[in-house]
Design brief:
By secondary structure, this protein is mainly α. Helix content is about 85%, strand content about 0%. The protein is built from 1 helix and no strands.
């Protein structure tokens, strides 16, 4: 007698375990695909945000340099006027 009896086409425990593991793998790959798509979307949004921050920082730096240049001109004019009065 054979210790491993098969009853026709009925799935064995090993086959059922294999199918269960493949099903889990399929679910995991589906979740991974969704997570990667979400990560891609977030990276694209981050890229847009960084570009906007660069533009803002550039404009802010230009304003700061304009004000600093104006203040330097005002200081130079005050020094000239102060030196002439003495």
């Amino acid at each position: 007698m054979n210790a491993f009896t098969h009853s026709g086409n009925a799935p064995t425990n090993a086959t059922q375990a294999k199918e269960r593991l493949y099903s889990q793998l399929s679910g995991s790959l589906t979740r991974l695909t969704r997570a990667m798509a979400r990560t891609t979307d977030l990276c694209e949004q981050l890229q847009l945000d960084l570009h906007a921050m660069r533009a803002f920082a550039g404009l802010d730096a230009a304003k700061l340099m304009t004000v600093a240049a104006k203040l330097n001109l005002d200081d130079e004019e005050e020094e000239k006027e102060g030196g002439q009065g003495q």
